[in-house]
Amino acid sequence: MDTNEVKEIVDRWMIPTAKGAYMAGLESRPVISHACGIEVYDTQGRRYLDFGSGQMAAALGHNHPLYVQAVKRNLETISHSTKTFLNVDRLTLHRRLGEILTPPLQKSLFLVSGSDAVEAAVDMARKVTGGTDVLGMNMGLHGSTSFITRSLSFGWNRSKHGLAAQATFSMMAPYAYRCPFADCACVTGSGDFLCMKTSFDLAVSNFTGKPAAFIMEPILSAGGIIVPPPGYVKALRELCSQYGMLFIMDESQTGLGKTGQMWGHQHEGVVPDIITVSKHFGAGLPVSAVCTSAEIADRAAANGYFATRSHACDPITCAAGVASIDIIEQDGLVERAAAIDAQLRERLSAMARQIEMIGDIRGRGVLYGVELVTSRKTREPANDAAKAVVQACQEQGLIVQARGSHGRMNVIRLVPPMVSTDAEIQEGMDILEKVLKQVAQSGVMNKAAA
Ligand SMILES: Cc1ncc(COP(=O)(O)O)c(C=O)c1O
C-alpha cells in the first residue's frame, strides 16, 4: 500500500479520532504488515523492535509457536460455540487459570476485553455489597466502554465524554515524584501517606450512596507508570475495608508475569477481593477474565449477578488463553521478566547519570517508565521532548509510547515482550540512549525549557 492509498482509505472510510488524542495522525505513521517474536515490520519492509508489546498485549511476543498451534487446531475444529453448553477449551482455561491464581481468587468468568472485565468486576462488587459508589485513582485507566470504565479512567480524557457514570469518584494516585505533601510517607518513606488519607477523606465526603468498591492498577500504567511506594497498597486496602468496599485490582497490564511476579498484587503482600485479567491473556486474541473467591462469587450469584458476551467463552479464544499460560510456564517468563527488569534498571540508571532530562525512572519487570523533565529542579514535564523521543525512536526502529495524565505526556513507556533476548533488550536500549541524547541536545529541549 502506498501513502496515497493509505490516505484515501483514512479520509474516505475511517471515522476520525479527536484531535489531540494519541491516535490522531495515524495516517502519517508506518502501516504494519506483519510481526514475529518481538519484531514488527511495516509495508516498506522496515523492522521495528516492539517495546510497546503491541497495545500492551503482545508480551509473549508475536505469533508464539504454541499459540499459533492452538489457534490453528481450533480453526479446524471449533472457533465459536453457544454459551448455553460448556466446551472443552473453556473448561480447560478455567482450571489452568485457577491453578495459577492467588488463593482464594481461583474462580473465574470469561469476557472479551479488559473493559468488559472491569465492568463485570464493578457490577460483581455492587451485587455483593448492595452498594453503588466506586472509587478509583485520578491517574488510572480502566477501559473505554461508555457505561463505567471510561468514567473510572480519571487519568484519560474523562472530561471529553460529557456525562460520566453516576457513583464514580477519584482519589490521588501515589505519585511520589510529584506528591504535593512534602511530609508524606510516599516522599519520606516513613509516617503517614498524607496524599492517601487526605484525598480518600475528600472522596468519601462526595459519596452519594453506600460504597461498593475501590479499583486500582497495581502499577498505574497509562497514567505514567506510577509504582505505589512500599506499604501504600496495604494501608489503602485496610482503609477501604473499613468502609465495606471490595478491593478490585485491574491486572490487565500487570498480570501474567509482566512485573516479574505472576500477579502485580504479589509485590504488595495484599490479596484483593477481585482481579481482572486481559491483554496478553489471549496471547494475541481477545479474551479477559474476572477472578474472585468462591465466597464472593456465590454471594454475587445469589444476588442475580451475571456477565457475558456472545464471544466470551469461544473455544478459540479460550484455547489461546490456555496456550498463553502454557507459554508463560514452559518458557519461564515470570523469571525472564524479572531478569529483564534488572537489565532495564541498570541501563536506565546509567543513562540518568548522563542525561539531565531524565527526571525519574519507575517500573517493575518489563513495565518501565522514564519521566522526562525540562529541569530536574523544577520538574517541569518535558512533553515536547517526549514526543520527539517517540518519533525519533520510531525512525530508528524502536516502538515506544509516551504516557502520562493531567496535561503531562512526558513518560516514555517501555514494555518489551517477556520473550526478548538479552541482545534485543540491549539493542532497544542502545537506540533509546542515542535518541535521548540527541533530543536532550536538540532545539526541542530548549524550546520546552523556554
Ligand atoms: C489497566 C487497563 N485496564 C483496562 C483496559 C481496557 O482494556 P481493553 O482495551 O481491552 O478494553 C486497559 C487498556 O489499555 C488498561 O490498560
Summarize the structure.
It contains 15 helices and 15 strands. The chain is an alpha/beta fold and 450 residues long.
Describe this structure in words.
The chain has helices at 3-13, 53-56, 65-77, 88-100, 114-129, 149-152, 185-188, 194-206, 232-242, 294-302, 315-330, 333-354, 383-395, 422-441, 443-449, and strands at 32-36, 39-42, 47-50, 107-111, 133-137, 168-171, 211-216, 246-250, 274-277, 288-292, 358-364, 367-372, 398-399, 401-403, 411-414. A hairpin with a 4-residue loop joins strand 2 (39-42) and strand 3. The chain is globular and about 60 Å long. Helices cover 39% and strands 15% of the residues. The model has no long low-confidence stretch (mean pLDDT 95). It is built from 15 helices and 15 strands. It has 2 domains: 31-63 and 332-449, Aspartate Aminotransferase, domain 1 (Alpha-Beta Complex), CATH 3.90.1150.10; 65-330, 3-Layer(aba) Sandwich (Aspartate Aminotransferase, domain 2). The strands form 3 sheets. The protein has a 7-stranded mixed sheet with strand order 4-10-9-8-7-5-6, with helices on both faces. Strands 1-2-3-13 form a 4-stranded mixed sheet. The chain has a 4-stranded antiparallel sheet with strand order 11-12-15-14, with helices on one face. By secondary structure, the chain is α/β, with parallel strands linked by helices. It binds pyridoxal-5'-phosphate. Pyridoxal-5'-phosphate (PLP) is lined by residues 113-115, 118, 141-144, 217, 221-222, 250, 252-253, 278.
